[in-house]
# Entry
Amino acid sequence: MEERILALIEEKKYGLLRSELSEINPADLSQIFEEIPENEQPVIFRILPKELAAETFVEMDSDTQQRLIEAFSDFELRQVMDELFMDDTVDIIDEMPATVAKRILRQTDANTRKMINQLLDYPDDSAGSIMTTEYIDLKKNMTVDEAFDRIRKIGFDSETIYVCYVTDAGRYLLGFVTIKDLLLSPKDRIIGDIMDENVIYTTTMEDREKVADMIKKYDMLALPVVDKENRLVGIVTVDDAIDVMQAEVTEDIEKMAAILPSEHTYFKTGIFETVRARIPWLLLLMISATFTGAIISGFEEKLTVFPALIAFIPMLMDTGGNSGSQSSVTVIRSISLGDIEFSDLGRVLWKEIRVALLCSSILAVINALKLFLVDYLIFRNFDLGKAVAEIAVVCITLFCTVLVAKIVGCTLPILAKKIGFDPAVMASPFITTIVDAISLCIYFGVAAYILGA
Amino acid sequence: MEERILALIEEKKYGLLRSELSEINPADLSQIFEEIPENEQPVIFRILPKELAAETFVEMDSDTQQRLIEAFSDFELRQVMDELFMDDTVDIIDEMPATVAKRILRQTDANTRKMINQLLDYPDDSAGSIMTTEYIDLKKNMTVDEAFDRIRKIGFDSETIYVCYVTDAGRYLLGFVTIKDLLLSPKDRIIGDIMDENVIYTTTMEDREKVADMIKKYDMLALPVVDKENRLVGIVTVDDAIDVMQAEVTEDIEKMAAILPSEHTYFKTGIFETVRARIPWLLLLMISATFTGAIISGFEEKLTVFPALIAFIPMLMDTGGNSGSQSSVTVIRSISLGDIEFSDLGRVLWKEIRVALLCSSILAVINALKLFLVDYLIFRNFDLGKAVAEIAVVCITLFCTVLVAKIVGCTLPILAKKIGFDPAVMASPFITTIVDAISLCIYFGVAAYILGA
# Structure
C-alpha cells in the first residue's frame, strides 16, 4: 500500500491519491506521512478530507507536526485546530517551540485559549494534564428523549458519547448514564431516575498512573475528573489511559535497569540526554563496588595462598546477582500490580526463603558434581583432600549467597515502597552490588573456616 | 467501608447489608468478598442483586469462585452463568478443576455448550481465546431506526453496544457503524450508506499480543475477529486488551530477569512452580560463568604477582554488566514498542557507540581520580610509578569494557528478534555473563601489556 501511495505522489495523481488516502486509518496514514518527502508533506496533507486530516495530524510525531504547522496559513492552522479535541491540542502545544505554540494560541478564540492555558498549568503527571474537556453533560430533570437531543447537538465535538455525566447548575457531578442505559429506557423516563449515583471519579491533581489504574480496575471507557471545588471539569478516556500505562511501564523498566526515566522514544532522545539518564547510576554503582574491592583487598594475602579460589569469584557474584534480581524484579512487578503490600512482607519472605532453599540446594549440588567431574577429574592434578575442601567452600558459599540474595532481593523493594521510595530502583543493579559484597564476605569466611586460609 | 460491611455481616443485618452492598462497584466488592469468612461467602453472595452478583463473580479470584460454585444449587449456578458474557464463562471454566467445569457445562443449553467448547479449543495466546461472542450485528439494508430496535433487543446481552458490525447472510463482515454514527444520522438512513467499510479486524488464531497492539494503535473500543472462512465470530473488547497488555509486560519483565514466565500472581504460584520458573536460567548462567572462571585460572600465576589487580575484578564486572544491561533493556523495550526494527541496527549502534564513548570516558576519569586521591594517597604505601601503571590498567579496561558492553547490549536483542528469538531474553543476566568474560580478557590483556604481567 505504502509503495502505491508514494508512487502516486511521485506521479502527482492527486485525485486518485485523495480517494486512496481517504480509505486509510489515521494511525496508518501518519506512518505513511513520515515516508513522504518533507517538502511534499504539506501538499499531501491539504488533499485529505478535513476530519481525516485532523485525526492524522494528532497521530504524527512532533517534528512532522511542527513542519506542517510552519507550512500552514493561519486559516489552515485554525481549520486543523478546530477539529482537535482539547487534550490533543494541549499535547501538541506542549511539544512545540514557544513561537509555534504562541502562533497556535493566536488562532483560537479567547475562551479556548483560557481553557488551554488552564490545562497547560496542570503538573505533567496529573489527571488534569491528560484529561479532555469535551464530554456530554446532562441535567437530572431531562427526559431520555431530551438527553438524545443534547447528545446529537454536542456529540460531534465530544470525545466519547458512550458515557454521559449528570451535573447540577453548579457543575457538581451527580451521576452518570451510559448510552446503553438511555437506549434501553423509555423515551419519557427522567434522567434522574435512571442515572447511577455511584459514580467513580478522580481529581485534577491525582497522579495519572492512579487514574490509569482506576480505569483498568473498573473497566471504564472514561473517568470523570473534578476540580478542588468538586466541579466536573473533564474526562480521561480509556485510550489515553492505555498510553499512560505504557509510559509508566517503560519508566519502571528503565528504573529497573538503572536508567533515569526519559520522556522520549529511543531515537528522539539525544546523545547527551541519554548519557545524562545513564551515567548517574553507573557512577554510583561503580563507587559502591569499591567496598567489594576493599573486601577482596583484605583477603589478598590469603588469596595468593589459595589462588584457585579467585577463579570462582565471578560465578559466585553472577549467580548471587541473578538470584537476587529474580526475587527483586518479581516483587517489584507484583507491588506495581497491587498483588503485594507492606503487610505481606512476612508471607513474601517465607515464600522466598523456601524457594531459595530449593534453588540453592539444586545449584550447589549440580555445581559440586560439575566441579568434581569436569574441573578436577579432567583438568587438574588430582588431590582428593584438597579438591573436596575447595568444592565444599565454593558450594557452601553458593548455597548461602543464593539464600541471602533472595532474602535481600525480596525485602528491599517492599521496604523502599514503605518509606516512600520507588521500589523499581531496588532491582538488579542495586541488588547485585549489595549481594556481591555479602557473597564475598561469606566466601572468605567459609574459606577461612574450612581451609584455614 | 470494608470494616462497616464486615461488622454488618457479623451482626447478620442482611437487609441493611443488601442496600449497602448494592452501592459498591463489582471490582471493589470482589475484594471485600475475599475478606469475608469463607463459610459466610455463599450467604452474602445470595443477598446481592442478580446482575451485581454476576458482575462481582467475574472479578473474584478462582479459589473464591470455586468455593461459591460448590456451594451453589444447580439453579443458582445456572442463574449466575446466564448473566455472564461468553468470554468470562470460558475463562472461569478454564480455571476450574474438571469436575466443577463439567458441572458448569451441564447447566448450559446445547448451543451455549457447543460455543463454549469451541472457545476452549483456541490456543491460549490466540485472539479466539480472549474474544467474546456477544456483539451486535446489523444488516446492510436495515434503516437506522431498525438498527436501534435490534440494539434494544439484543443490547442487554451484548458486551459492548458502542460499535455494531454489519454482516451479510453468510456472516461475512462488511463494515461497522458506531452508536455515534447511528445517533447522528436520520432515522430512515440505510445502514449500508452510513457504515464504514474500512473495518480493521483480526483472525481467531492471531497472537493476542498483536490484537492488543492493534486496539492500542487504532484507539478501538472493540476489535472484530473472523474465522478462517472470514466469517465474523466474535469481538475483543478494550478492557480485555488492557489485561493482555499487562500480562505481556509482566512476561517481558520476567524474561528480562531470567525467569520463565508464569501464569499466576505471586501468591498463587506455588513454591515448586516458582523454583521451576527460576532454576533453568540460574543453572545455565552458573555453568556459563565457568568460562569466566577459566579465564581467571589462565591468569592465576600472574595475578599472584600483582594481587592488587584482583580487587578491581568486581567493579569492572559490575560496571560492564550495568552498562550492557542499560543498553539491552532500552533496546528491548523500544523493540516491543515498535520504535526499533532490524533495519535500525546501524543507527542504534551509532547512537550507542557515541553514548558509550561519553559514558566510559566519564567513568574512567572519575575512577582514576578516585583511585589516585582516595585509594592510593590515603590507604597505600605510595609508589607513584606503580600506582599510575595500575590506575592506567584499570581505567583503560573500564573504558573498553563499557564500550564493548554497550555494543553487545544493543546488538544482541536486535539480532535475537531478527532470527525469531524473544529479544527480552537478551537482557541483563545474559549480557552480564558475556560482558564478564570479555571484560576479564580485556583486563588481563591490558595488564600484560602495561605491567608486563
The mean pLDDT of chain A is 87.
